[in-house]
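G., before I forget:
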Amino acid sequence: MAEATKTGDDGVQIDLISGQRMDELTTMEKIRLILDGVHDGNIVILEEGLTPDEESKLIEVTMGEISPDEFNGIEIETYPRSETRSSSLLGRLMGGEEPTAKLTVIGPANQIETLHKDESLISALVSRN
Amino acid sequence: MGLFTGLRHSISRVTDRLFSEQEPKRIGIYGPPNAGKTTLANRIARDWTGDAIGKESHIPHETRRARRKEGVEIERNGKSVTIDIVDTPGVTTKVDYEEFTDEMDKDDAIRRSREATEGVAEAMHWLREDVDGVIYVLDSAEDPITQVNTMLIGIIESRDLPVLIFANKIDLEESSVKRIEDAFPQHETVPLSAKEGDNMDEVYENIAEYFG
Ligand SMILES: Nc1nc2c(ncn2[C@@H]2O[C@H](COP(=O)(O)OP(=O)(O)OP(=O)(O)O)[C@@H](O)[C@H]2O)c(=O)[nH]1
Ligand SMILES: [Mg+2]
C-alpha cells in the first residue's frame, strides 16, 4: 500500500490501496481496511474498486457503524477507466499491471463536503476542523 | 412424531414449494430516500387490494423497516400476475441525525437516524437474499447519477434480477424522464406520478409484462 502521509494537525491522509493488495484479502478484510481508514479520517483510494457484492456489504457494515456525533457514514465515488489507461495516474504511481476495474474513492461523510465527479476528475473537498 | 416422519414431512413441504406454480414473486421497491417508494407501494396496494402499506413523508427515512404486502394480483390486457410487494427503506451511504433536527427534537432525530441505518442494512440484506425482481424508483426532478444509484443498479444487475426503473414525480416542473433514460439506457424506464396517479396504466402493463 502506498501511503501519502501527512501528520500535521490539519493534514489529510490518503491511503492508496493497490489491486494486488486487495486481491489477497477476503471481503470482510477489505471492508475493514477501508472503514478503519475512513474512521481515522483518511481518504481511501482503491485502485480496482469492489465487486457489487462487496459494495453491498460495505453499505451494510457502514450502516452498523454510524453513530451520532462520531461517524456519519461514507462518501464514495467510482471512476470507470477508459480503454486507454496506459498513462493513468495510479498506474504510474503504483507501477505494475494496468488494472481493469474502476478506481474508487471513499471518505468519511462528515469531513468530505462534496465528492464531486465529472468525466475525468474526482475531487474531494475536505474540511479541516 | 419420529425423526423420519418429521423429516419426510418437511421434505414434502419443500417439494410442495418447489413445484407449486403460483409462488408469488417478491418484488422489492428500491431507491434513494424520498423518491416516492411508499407512495407507489400504497397506490399499487390500494388499487388492487384496497389497503395501504406504510406511511409517506417528506422527511427522508420515513420507511425504516421493509414492509411486505402479500398476494397483490395485478391484471392487465388479459395477463394476470400475483406479486408480493416489498416496500424498502431508502438506501444511502450516510445518515446524519442533524438532517432531522428541524423537524423534531434531538432525541427523536437520533432515534430516527439509528432506525434509518438499521433499515438501510435490512434493505441491502433483502436485496441479496429475498427479492425476485426490483422496481427502482427515482425522483425525476433530481440528478439520477449518484453513487448510490449506480452502485445499487450494479448490485441488482450482478444478481440478474429483473428490474424496471420508475421515473417518479413527473408532475413536478423540474422533472426530466430523459435524464433517467440516458443514465440507465440498459433498462426500461417508466414515467409516472405515484402521488397524482399519472400513467398508472403503463406502470401496471410493465409490471404484468416484466414480473409475470
Ligand atoms: N410531487 C410529487 N411528490 C411525490 C410523488 N410521489 C411521492 N411524493 C412525495 O415525496 C415524499 C416522499 O414520499 P415517500 O413515498 O414517503 O418516499 P419514500 O421513497 O418511501 O421515502 P423513504 O421511506 O424515506 O425512503 C412525500 O412527501 C410524497 O408525498 C409524486 O409522484 N409527485
Ligand atoms: Mg418509504
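Chain B has a mean pLDDT of 92. Residues B 37-38, 62-63 surround magnesium ion (ligand 2) (CB under 6 Å).

More on Monday.
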